[in-house]
Specification:
By secondary structure, the protein is an alpha/beta fold. The chain has one domain: 3-Layer(aba) Sandwich (Rossmann fold). The protein is 35% helix and 27% strand. It has an eight-stranded mixed sheet with strand order 1-2-4-3-5-6-7-8, sandwiched between helices.
């Protein structure tokens, strides 16, 4: 097994974007493809590592780009400035995700009929929002995603897995109850895994800011990755 990677340029609405793709060259023929949507700082080594780990599981991992080629935030203020336009214009957010999905499906290593999305923090919201468009993907996985409803949820065709820290100050229990009702009303097949004693950004080993609400939790990190693996085994069976 040799994991191969390549960077792929694509455009949306006049913005040049760059995705990072990883796959196992020992496999032959198309295989399931999984989009990886980044946290609020932009596509980084964190998401690229997830793409490689997905490739080791037999999938094609594609770390997408929401902001533009080479655009990364350096601190909380810059990160917020990059993310906010997409929170304020969810149609733009959803269209950019749709462009990434089309790019993934164009790759010769990918089975275009077997695709899914996963994401972290802001990327978790993105993962949910692609499903909320009614996109014909098989699954959506949100890791400590922001549950903010877009106000235009369509009938959801994808199965959904929400992996959540119960003590996340950015997604408190009442917001998660409301999310469950939204997904039920949209006809989704959804499940929520909540981890006790766990805050936001629990998958990020560099998260260590309890006052801000972001703290790494190794047990929740391990358990959520295993839950994702089981979920993908189901939807890609």
């Amino acid at each position: 097994m040799t994991i191969q990677t390549r960077r792929i340029e694509y455009t949306h609405d006049g913005t040049l974007l760059e995705g990072f793709m990883a796959f196992d060259d020992a496999s032959t023929g198309p295989r399931p493809g999984v989009l990886i949507s980044h946290a609020w700082a932009g596509r980084s080594e964190f998401e690229e590592d997830k793409a490689r780990r997905l490739a080791e599981l037999g999938y094609v991992g594609f770390a997408l780009d929401m902001y533009g080629k080479g655009v990364l935030g350096k601190d909380k203020d810059e990160n917020a400035a990059l993310m906010t336009p997409f929170l304020e214009d969810r149609s733009l957010l959803q269209a950019r995700l749709t462009a990434a999905l089309a790019t993934l499906r164009e790759q010769k290593e990918v089975d275009a009929d077997q695709t899914a999305i996963m994401g972290f923090c802001f990327g978790g919201l993105c993962a949910m929002d692609l499903a909320r468009t009614g996109a014909d993907i098989l699954g959506s996985v949100s890791f400590h995603g922001l549950p903010m409803p877009p106000g235009n949820t369509q009938t959801i065709r994808a199965k959904m897995l929400i992996l959540h820290g119960w003590d996340d100050p950015m997604a408190q229990p009442d917001a998660m109850v409301a999310l469950g009702q939204e997904l039920t009303d949209a006809g989704a097949d959804w499940q929520l895994h909540a981890y006790g004693g766990t805050m936001h950004a629990f998958t990020n080993p560099n998260a260590n800011d309890p006052d801000f609400g972001t703290v790494y939790h190794p047990d929740a990190d391990r358990r959520s990755w295993q839950a994702m693996r089981t979920f993908f085994e189901e939807i890609f069976a």
